[in-house]
Amino acid sequence: MAKLIMAASLALAVILSAGAGHAQPAQFTPGDETPEEFPAGVGRDDAFYACTACHNFKLVAQQGMTRLQWEDSLQWMIDRHKMSPLPEKDKKIVLDYLEATFPPRAPAPGRGWQNPFSPR
User: Fold this and answer.
1) Which domain CATH number covers 49?
2) 23 inside domain
3) CA distances from 56 to 62, 93, 109 (A)
4) With CB atoms 3.0 to 4.6 Å apart as the test, which of 39, 57, 70, 90 could cross-link to 86 if both were Cys?
5) How many domains does the chain have?
6) How far apart are CA 100 and CA 91, in angstroms?
7) Does the structure show a pLDDT above 90 at 35?
């Protein structure tokens, strides 16, 4: 029973972290993407390599969040998935890039999509 609950919890975490049902490829490796595929900006490479240690960067790029939401997401990954915390200097660089490059977007008309990391 405990294994079933653990498996269900893991499946839910994967679904929620993927956002809106966008699952990442099962065979993802960081070599599948390069930082140059994403918008240029100060901190792009830092953000890319910090994020692709665990998942693809397309997952990150499809999100649109405020700085607080990005920060909360990082903390959630630390708390929930045991991600190593970024040193404060690196965290600032990563958050500056994510905030500037992937800000909140309004849902498409008629879509009603809600970011799973948004406060309700």
Assistant:
1) 1.10.760.10
2) no
3) 11, 19, 28
4) 90
5) 1
6) 14
7) yes
